[in-house]
Design goal:
- Helix content is 75%, strand content 0%.
- By secondary structure, the protein is an all-alpha fold.
- The N and C termini lie far apart (76 Å).
- The model has no long low-confidence stretch (mean pLDDT 90).
Length: 97
Amino acid sequence: MDIPEVAQAAALAEVAKLGHDRGELLRQADELLTRIKPAAVKAVQAGAGRNRVRELAGVSTTLWYEWLDEAGIQVRPRAAKKTATKKATTSRKRETS
């Protein structure tokens, strides 16, 4: 006869171990970011293509532009997001043209 508490304890132990492992990996990832950031900025300053550097660094566009801005490297202003209304208006203009 299976005892539910034993199965629950085993499942919780597995979750706890995996949670611990995840936390360790996230800590390592944060540590790597502190090393990637200056290397990525240095690559751009050496003339490497920004998009290629960002791809190799494996960081989001938002974080990448933040890094460039902090390093004093000029970045283009962020484009305004199109709203549903603007998109609909633009589509109607094309249809009537």
